[in-house]
Amino acid sequence: MNINVRTESVITLAQKLIQQPSITSTSCNCHKIINNYLQQLNFKIEFMKFKDTINIWAYHNGNRKNKYIKTHTLLFLGHTDVVTPGTLKNWKYPPFSGVIHDNILYGRGAADMKGALAAMLIAAKNFVHNNSDYPGKIAFLITSDEEGKGTNGTIKVVQSLLKRNEKINYCIVGEPTSQNKIGDVIKNGRRGSLTATLTILGIQGHVAYPQFSKNPIHSIIPAISDLLNTKWDQINNTLFPETTMQITNIISNNNNNNNIIPNEVTLQINLRFNTLTSVNNIKKQIHKILQSNNLNYNINWQLHAEPYFSKPGKFTNIVINIIKDSQKFTPVLETTGGTSDGRFVAKMGSEIIELGALNCSIHKFNEHIHIKDLKILQFLYQEILEKLFINASNLL
Q: How far apart are CA 265 and CA 272, in angstroms?
């Protein structure tokens, strides 16, 4: 496997992107850096701005020699925004410096997912330079709000593309899916995410006279036990992990006063659910548990993401075979982990795979990517382009 072709440029580009403090939903100069690279390749570039979010939609058409070969579009999907670096003193190196030490590139976004973005861009650059007459279309959709609310990014761009009757056949999402080696895990779907903000109402009073009060914290304890022991899936889903629930926060309104029984306590609950478990059924189950415990409550729901699943097809098999041949192991298809913007592209009927860096340091202090892994990612993305477009039989 030759992964030493033009690899210096992928390192430099990754550093340039990391050096931009693009905390969601800002882009800083990331969109300008990406624009400059794609302009060199004669990509048609459109900045699609929705409120404060800058999105890039760019594409390049190959010069087809054989007009009878059907043109297919491969989309590289990614984001330039990152989560906050947190407490700076916990970093070995400044989080937006892009320092390389012992062949490891450090910085917020190195793994999630500026490293993968750099690898995608350089892979596309090398491929287009070497194959100007490829029979297909390469596209990039890059947002700056994936780590935030996600309301003005990929979802809005996809809505616009659908109105234009744009077709995306295949999609690579650069999320950090790998666990121990680059390419050992590929995602072809994700669970949905539903948050419930639950407030239990009681009666405030003095802790020395509990008989005149009703402690909502005490009242919720049996219900919490019921919630934690609930099996949320009515049907086992062989393609997804089971639906899980986590209580992420509990807070009362007594302002840390230790001699007051509060009159309310609020819980934040998050559920990750699969394609065979509906939001309505989850809501019904929770209401049933709360009512059976005779609780006086209010509840607000926020649906962050619906689950999606991309059925493995020709494109997925191409990617698997590339990894088997070059990395000497067979990748595992999974639908684990958090949400991704792949769920929006799925609405376009695309075959989607998620393939990126190791995920062991994402959202942590000292986020990083090994230089060798960065080069392997570039190689894999470029091989995917070669196998998909140069072997024309894949497109018939």
A: 23
What's the start-to-end Cα distance of the chain, in Å?
28
Strand bridging mode 264-273 / 192-201: antiparallel
DSSP H or E run through 93: none
The dihedral built from the CA positions of residue 110, 112, 114 and 120, taken in this order, carries a sign that is positive
* Secondary structure (3-state) at 60: strand
pLDDT beyond 80 at 64: no
Task: Return the active site residues.
Answer: 81, 146
What are the φ and ψ backbone dihedral angles of 356, each rounded to 5 degrees? -155, -155
Tell the residue number behind the tokens 């304890």, with chain if given.
Answer: 221
Over 50: is that where the pLDDT of 335 sits? Answer: yes
Among 72, 77, 37, CA closest to 57: 77
Q: What's the pTM value of the predicted model, to 2 decimals?
A: 0.91
Mean pLDDT of 98-114: 98
**Residue positions in the annotated binding site?**
79, 112, 147, 175, 363
Q: pLDDT at residue 246 above 50?
A: yes
Q: What does the DSSP assignment read for 128-194?
A: HHH-TT-SEEEEEEEES-TTTT-SSSHHHHHHHHHHTT----EEEE----BSSSTTSEEESEE-EEE
From 327, 246, 233, 326, select the one nearest 275 (Cα to Cα).
Answer: 233
Return the axis-axis angle of helices 279-292 and 216-228, rounded to nearest 10°: 130
Binding-site positions for Zn(2+): 79, 112, 147, 175, 363
